Amino acid sequence: MSAHQSELIAAEAAPIFAALGDTTRLSLLSRLNDGQPRSVVQLTAGTGLTRQGVRKHLGVLEAVGLVMRERVGRESRFVYQPTGIETAKQHLERASAQWDNAIERLKRRLEGD
Amino acid sequence: MSAHQSELIAAEAAPIFAALGDTTRLSLLSRLNDGQPRSVVQLTAGTGLTRQGVRKHLGVLEAVGLVMRERVGRESRFVYQPTGIETAKQHLERASAQWDNAIERLKRRLEGD
DNA sequence: GTCATAGGCAACTTGGAGGTTGCTTATGAA
DNA sequence: TTCATAAGCAACCTCCAAGTTGCCTATGAC
Q: Does residue A50 sit in helix, strand or coil?
């Protein structure tokens, strides 16, 4: 992967990580993770928050592409969207790889050129 | 993995994601990613922020275990710590796996029991 | 021993995140 | 057609995160 592409992934990864950095949103996502669309009221149940509060969290998830909204009748259904998580995973995997690489080089140097 | 363990990973993943959800910190991390310890002044260079500002970001990264601090003489050296990224990666991988599973089940059901 | 450098710590400012209440509109059910 | 339900929207509150300035301390260099 080019350095340019790396920068791009990093730039788009930060907002995704930020969206994931909240227990409420993480929990909402894990509930939507089964692929089933759910309405706002459904998703509000069990959170201890108001409908509007949950709606804001869903807005954040939607803004970074982690979920999608579809209007059905008077309901707003939210659906899990796998691409966002995939982007985040790629970023972390690249970080892991760079780290492994650095360690490997360090080891070789220690073991005597 | 047990449901209990899942909950634990989720609970400790959120603060890590939050720490990663900032471009400055993401960039600091990627610079430390090569395993080389770096002082605060070194890490400040190129950020456009003050030393104290950068120091705060490093404090956040340290608080969630993404980096470690070691005092050497009058310097504070910060070192990359791979375990945090590993935890975050595990969480995302679990999410991906659940998703794949759900899709697979859906497909089987559609293809006619 | 003196001076420059690295860093810690505290106080302060500001914008936005997370949450609420209150009101209005659309749609489904009876 | 009337009423209950789902949701949107706006205004507001509160608190913390991000960043700054300013000052003090410790350590290395000369």
A: coil
ipTM computed for the complex: 0.92
| B44 within 8 A of B54, measured Cβ to Cβ | yes
Q: Where are the beta strands (DSSP E) in chain B?
A: 38-39, 67-72, 75-80
As a rounded value in angstroms, the CA-to-C1' distance for A74 and D4 is 13
The answer to whether residues A69 and A62 touch, using CB atoms and an 8 Å cutoff, is yes
Here the tokens at position B81 are: 């710590």
Could you give phi then psi for residue B47, rounded to 5 degrees?
-90, -25
Given a cut of 80, is residue A57 above it in pLDDT? yes
Q: Closest chain A residue to B85 measured between Cα atoms?
A: A92
CB A62 within 8 A of CB A15: no
Instruction: Identify whether the C-beta of residue A79 lies closer than 8 Å to the C-beta of residue A37.
Output: yes
In chain A, the domains with their CATH numbers are: 3-110 (1.10.10.10)
d(CA A11, CA B26): 9
pLDDT at B22 (0 to 100): 97
> Does residue A83 belong to the interface with chain B, where contact is any CB pair within 8 Å?
no
pLDDT in tens, A29-48: 999 999 999 999 999 999 99
Q: What residue type is A83 in one-letter code? A: T
Nearest residue to B16 (alpha-carbon basis) of B65, B54, B56: B65
**pLDDT tens across B38-88, in order?**
999 999 999 999 999 999 999 999 999 999 999 999 999 999 999 999 999
